[in-house]
Amino acid sequence: MQGRWECSISISSLTLFTFKMVWLQFSVISTLTELLVVYLMNKQTKSK
């Protein structure tokens, strides 16, 4: 029983770690996209 419990703990922590990594990548990508959009908008308004 002890071994199975440790296994389930490691699986849940691994899932949590993967979720954190995906969330981190998503927030970084969304931030970069936002910056890119702002940059392009500023570029367009300056060119007019």
TrEMBL record:
Keywords carried by this UniProt record: Membrane, Transmembrane, Transmembrane helix
Transmembrane segments: 22-41
Biological source species: Brassica napus
UniProt name for this protein: (rape) hypothetical protein
Domain of life, source organism: Eukaryota
